Sequence to fold (324 residues):
Amino acid sequence: GAGGAAALERVMGGGPLSLVLGGLGVLLLFRMVRRLRPGARVRDSVVVITGASSGLGRECARVFHAAGARLVLCGRHAGRLQETVEELNETHPPSTVTFDLSEAGAVERAAEEILRLHGNVDVLINNAGISYRGNILETDLSVQRAVMDTNYFGPVALTQALLPSMVRRRSGHVVVISSIQGRIAIPHRSAYAASKHATQAYFDCLRAEVERYGLEVSVVSPGYIRTNLSRNALTGDGSQYGVLDRTTAMGRDPADVARAVLEAVRRRSKDVLLAGLLATVALYLRTLCPALFFKVMAMRARKEQRPEAAGGGGAGGGGAGGET
Ligand SMILES: NC(=O)c1ccc[n+]([C@@H]2O[C@H](COP(=O)([O-])OP(=O)(O)OC[C@H]3O[C@@H](n4cnc5c(N)ncnc54)[C@H](OP(=O)(O)O)[C@@H]3O)[C@@H](O)[C@H]2O)c1
Fold:
């Protein structure tokens, strides 16, 4: 009643607290209003998914197919893509386009093929990627380039090839699957973390530049997901790591992450962080107290350097076995 209101006024007293609470209120209201906006229509839209033969990409194919999208599934191996196609029912049979993202010419030809299929692309999901385990001193420069080619130049080339048609139609949504490692760099992941940091920066620039054409850009940054990513990772000498890391095995269910990607498309979210508590704390530490963050990372690098800490199997000259 009136007493309560008076007490509240005494506590707030028009000071900084009321300013903070007022600010939070406005923020909450803003979020609620945004949520009320009608979501983007996914049914019958043309959705291109790279890396649809495995892990998160395959789950995205399932989720977007269930939402009624017309799918174009991409990967390097026709046979593996066909496995994804066969799992989905026949109402909207997906198309497939087979190409290697790390080959610039192949990406351009693939973009033409993609556009020929449906005439346009509504949503491009740049999901394909490769990870890396190794220490910098024992890593060939060719490996640093290879990871960059697949994770950074691949999505950039595909996006740039499809962008003019989106701009002409004044409609389109580009999604990129980055990683928490696009925001913080952890030791023995140099090539991967660098490629994801570059990804974050490029797509942040793109978002600002294409807003005037009504295009949307979403950067999705998940923590560990239960997929074959660590098994498929490259080591310092370019061989396959081949190990399912404990952190990856205990990671998020890829189906949950795929649903978050669908939600990001529907809500036109600009930046989605799917981080647990530890990753969130690390992110704040990197921003607010970098010296401490660097100390913790150096300790981690030392710990992983000890032979007994190595995760076994092709760790790229040792030191890459740390799993957290
Ligand atoms: N798993 C995690 O813990 C985690 C965490 C954060 C972010 N992510 C990101 O999530 C995305 C999906 O990874 P995932 O976890 O699902 O891994 P995954 O199971 O290893 O799948 C990777 C996919 O990328 C494709 N791919 C790899 N290199 C390619 C190339 N040069 N050209 C074309 N396609 C290529 C693979 O297809 P083919 O081999 O059939 O060509 C495969 O479909 C990646 O961008 C990854 O960085 C993963």
About this structure: The mean pLDDT is 91. The radius of gyration is 22 Å. The beta strands are 46-50, 70-75, 95-98, 123-126, 132-133, 173-177, 216-222, 234-235, 271-274. The chain is about 50% helix and 10% strand.
